[in-house]
Every structure is written in structure tokens, then in C-alpha cells.
Design a protein that fits this description.
Elements lengths: L1 H27 L4 E3 L12 E4 L7 E10 L4 E6 L1 H9 L3 E8 L2 E7 L18 E7 L3 E8 L4 E6 L6 E7 L3 H25 L4 H5 L2 H12 L14 E2 L6 H19 L15 H16 L13 E5 L2 E2 L4 E8 L4 E8 L7 E8 L18 H20 L6 E2 L1 H11 L5 E5 L1 H4 L13 E5 L2 E16 L9 H4 L3 E3 L2 E15 L6 E10 L2
């Protein structure tokens, strides 16, 4: 009786192993991909679909993701800092989980104050991997605990269909082995039934070690969720510098031509510059128009030298960029508002390449302690005071900074001119946060960059009158008998980490309409 039961059980186990193993092997195929059924999220037509920030925080796992949509789709993987910035510009659908029946999630509103269409994101230079086109688009991502986020953008007003799964190396052959083991067990059971032998125990136990051996051969384990490090990205890597500057120069030269005679159009400047540089652009364009300047438009090309960048967890990003050569170089702050935005120049100053420190050996760092920030703010104030008054205290200055001081304190023949020092040394806490301190680690210390307002006031001598010429009257100011010009004082200071005296290496005074 027991022998009959054992033979029947052996036959049943063998048959199940054959059916299940063979069916699963056929379903998975030799590519070893275990995919869940495809599904469409409950998103609006044309809506961007992204994964939640920590959804893919797994270690030692190969994820397979597929997407398709009528008219085509972009399927891309990137740094969560970039993906969240892009998605935040518009209302989007966020995938918060994956279930056997498909993906789950919900619609998230735009975080941007003024949402704008994102356009075709396939041209964005942000993706660690991407695929685009009609039909199924597929990505295979090796997850190793590092932050990553997925994005699906349909080309038309369609809802993308998604399919998610895992790649398990050796899974197909494991299932073939299971089916083969089942066939052996089934054959053994039939043989025992025919011969009426009573030794089922030994045969039945063959299944466990064979399956265990096949599992061990594949090296597969149960995926486990991990706490990934906070997502961050370097603002501008050295390898990105040439392409960024080429794109900037193309738009900048168009703006230069538009601002020259006969158009005198200051509008295109907003596509290339921001902050103090944009204000100077507008100032000079207004003066050119009112004075009917006929100077021929010129072109300008920035030659990349170095980028001093740091890590950011959110946008906006910024980077300190050096361009030029030994004869003429400049140090500029470039900013990027969102992942889909262009890099814009915010400040610019002439600099001697010999005055610049080397990049930090330990790479880009985002941590700055309070003592470094305090030393940097003190150095910026000391430099601002020097430019305004010529008093040099607790700061070293280079020839480039001395030139700005001489320009600001030059006494013209027609009257006496000086800088309103109270405006030139505005306390950092009262400054516009957009113009406040920026710090980046370099070899031996930090570079500090800041912008401070500056006013140059002209007082007439006794018995004399002073007035602005008509071309500049509308962009400069007057009170009583005095005249004044407004500037943005852009300062770059090296703050040594050994407690030595900071050194002001670059400064510029950019005009702004009063």
C-alpha cells in the first residue's frame, strides 16, 4: 500500500515538474527574462510617466523595463535629480509600486510656478541609458544601490503601456533542468510501477538535491530593497564643458547680432545670460540704441580651460567656469534653472590663469562647514571694502582686482567721484539670496563667489554743473546736483584651508540700469 502511494506521489511530482518547468521555460525563453504582464497606468493622454525616487533602490539586481505607445515613446533612465526636475515642470503620473496586475501610482501636480511644455526629451544630454521609437522600447538596468529613476514620454497624446520584470541569469536552463528532473522522476515512477518494486523513498528524494543544485548554479537570490544614498549630481563636469560653451556661444553670437544696429534688440540676451550679466547686456543695448551706434556686430568664442563644480541634490545648479588663454582669460558663473533649461552666464570677470588654484584632488564636494562659510563672507566683505575705499585689510589682491578699484575711484576732470561704501559693502544677510555666496572646493581651500551692489556718485565742483548725456540719461540716476551709476560688483576670492590670508583673484563692475 505504501509503495503504491509512493509511486503515485513520485509520478505526480514528476508530471508537475515537467509541465511547470517546460511551460515556464517556454514563457521566459532563452533570454532569462521574467516579465510581469504589461499594463497601462491610469494617466492622462500624453502625460509624462516617471518612477518614484526610491522605487528602484535595489542591490545586485538586473531590471528589465519595456514601454510602447501609439506614435512612439521615449524610455529613459537618469539621475533622480534630473528626472525629478524635468517631471516637476509639468503635471505627471508617478509609479509608486509594481504589482502582478501592473504598475500603481497617481498623478502629481507640477511643482513649477509656471508649467511649460517639456518638448522632446530625447535630445536632452541627461540619460544614463535610453531608447526611443515605435513598438516596444526596452532598457536593462543593473541596479547596485545607486539612485536611478525612469521616465516614459509618449510622442503623441497616448498613454504608454509598461512592462516590468527581472533578468535572472541561467533561469531558462534552471527550468529546463526542473522539467528534465521531472521527466526522470516520472520515468522512474513508471518503471517502479511496471516492476512493482518497493523502493520509492530513495527515488522521491532525488528531486530536492537536483533542484537545489540547479538553483545554486544560477546564483539567483531574492531581490532586496536597500536604502540608497541621497541622489546628487555634479553641476558641470570637465567633459561637459566644451559642448556647453559651444551651445552658449551659438546663442550668444545671435544675441550680439540682434543687439547691434539696426535692430538694437535686447530680448535675445535673456536666452543666454541672467543676473548681473543680463543687466549689463540690457544697459549697453539701450545706450547703443539711444546713441545710434553703428559698430559692426562681432562674434565671440569661449575656449574652455576648467570647470570648478560641486554636487547638488536639487536644481538650480551652478558652476564656476574658466575660459580663455594666458593672454586673456575670464572666470564666469554659469547657472541652470532646471534639467531642461540652458546654461546661462550670471557673472563674468577677467582673471590671470596663474592666480587660479588647481581643482580639488578629492573631486567635487558638497559639504562646507560653518567656519569656511564665515571666512568666505569676511573675505568678500574685505574685498568689497578695498574696491570701494582702497583700504586693504585682511585680504590680498591681484592686478585684476586693483584695476577695478582704480576704475571705481578714478577722479575725472569735470568733478569729484566716489563710491557710496554703504552700498558697496551690503551685509550678506541683507543681500538678494540669488546673489549670495557660492562656494566650491579647490586644491588647498575654497573659491568664494559673490555679487554686491555698488554705486558710483559724481558730485560737481563748486560753480559747475554736471549732467548725463542723453544716450545714458535713462539708464543712470541723479539726485540733487549729483549723478550716479549703479553697478554689480562681482567678486571671486580664494580662501585657504590653512587659515592663511584670503586672496581676491578676480572682480568686475557690471553696469545695471538705475
Amino acid at each position: 500500500m505504501l509503495g503504491r502511494i509512493a509511486r503515485s506521489l513520485l509520478a505526480l511530482v514528476g508530471a508537475l515538474a515537467v509541465v511547470v518547468g517546460a511551460a515556464a521555460a517556454v514563457y521566459i525563453g532563452p533570454d532569462d527574462d521574467l516579465l510581469l504582464p504589461s499594463s497601462r497606468p491610469d494617466a492622462a493622454p500624453g502625460q509624462l510617466v516617471v518612477t518614484a525616487g526610491d522605487l528602484l533602490s535595489y542591490d545586485d539586481l538586473t531590471l528589465v523595463v519595456r514601454a510602447r505607445a501609439e506614435g512612439g515613446v521615449l524610455l529613459a533612465a537618469g539621475n533622480p535629480v534630473d528626472v525629478s526636475s524635468l517631471a516637476g515642470q509639468v503635471e505627471h503620473w508617478e509609479v509608486t509600486g509594481v504589482r502582478p496586475g501592473g504598475v500603481v501610482g497617481g498623478t502629481r501636480p507640477a511643482s513649477a510656478r509656471d508649467p511649460v511644455p517639456l518638448g522632446d526629451l530625447s535630445v536632452a544630454d541627461l540619460w544614463t541609458s535610453h531608447s526611443e521609437g515605435e513598438g516596444w522600447q526596452e532598457l536593462r538596468l543593473r541596479l547596485n544601490g545607486q539612485p536611478v529613476q525612469l521616465l516614459a514620454q509618449p510622442s503623441t497624446d497616448a498613454v504608454p503601456e509598461l512592462q516590468v520584470g527581472l533578468h535572472v541569469a541561467g533561469l531558462f536552463w534552471l527550468l529546463v533542468a526542473v522539467a528534465g528532473t521531472g521527466a526522470l522522476l516520472l520515468g522512474l515512477a513508471v518503471t517502479l510501477m511496471v516492476r512493482r518494486q518497493r523502493a520509492p523513498g530513495r527515488a522521491a528524494t532525488l528531486l530536492v538535491p537536483m533542484v537545489a543544485l540547479a538553483l545554486a548554479a544560477t546564483g539567483c537570490g531574492v531581490p532586496h530593497h536597500v536604502d540608497s544614498a541621497p541622489a546628487s549630481r555634479v553641476a558641470l563636469d570637465q567633459s561637459d564643458l566644451e559642448a556647453m560653451l559651444a551651445a552658449y556661444d551659438e546663442k550668444n553670437n545671435r544675441a550680439i547680432r540682434a543687439a547691434a544696429a539696426p535692430r538694437y534688440d535686447a530680448g535675445p540676451w535673456r536666452e543666454v545670460d541672467t543676473g548681473p550679466v543680463l543687466q549689463d547686456d540690457i544697459y549697453t543695448t539701450i545706450v547703443a540704441r539711444r546713441s545710434h551706434e553703428q559698430e559692426r556686430a562681432h562674434t565671440y568664442t569661449h575656449t574652455p580651460v576648467a570647470a570648478y563644480s560641486t554636487h547638488f541634490a536639487t536644481y538650480p545648479l551652478w558652476s564656476l567656469v574658466v575660459t580663455g588663454d594666458e593672454d586673456a582669460a575670464e572666470i564666469d558663473v554659469f547657472t541652470q534653472a532646471t534639467a531642461a533649461s540652458p546654461w546661462l552666464m550670471r557673472t563674468t570677470s577677467d582673471v590671470d590663469l596663474d592666480d587660479l588654484p588647481d581643482a580639488a584632488e578629492d573631486g567635487n564636494t558638497s559639504s562646507v562647514d560653518a567656519s569656511v562659510e564665515h571666512a568666505a563672507r569676511s573675505a568678500i566683505s574685505a574685498t568689497s571694502r578695498y574696491v570701494a575705499t582702497g583700504i586693504r585689510r585682511d585680504i590680498q589682491v591681484t592686478a585684476a582686482v586693483r584695476a577695478i578699484h582704480e576704475r571705481a575711484t578714478h577722479v575725472p576732470a569735470q568733478g569729484r567721484r566716489f563710491i557710496d561704501s554703504a552700498a558697496a559693502t551690503v551685509d550678506s544677510a541683507a543681500a538678494d539670496p540669488q546673489d549670495d555666496l557660492r562656494l566650491v572646493a579647490v586644491e588647498g581651500g575654497h573659491l568664494a563667489v559673490a555679487v554686491r551692489p555698488m554705486r558710483v556718485t559724481y558730485y560737481p565742483r563748486t560753480g559747475m554743473d554736471v549732467f548725463w548725456n542723453p544716450p545714458v540719461k535713462t539708464v543712470n540716476g541723479a539726485f540733487g546736483e549729483a549723478l550716479y551709476q549703479e553697478f554689480n560688483l562681482c567678486l571671486t576670492v580664494f580662501v585657504p584651508s590653512d587659515g592663511g590670508t584670503p586672496r581676491a583673484i578676480a572682480a568686475s563692475a557690471l553696469l545695471r540700469p538705475a
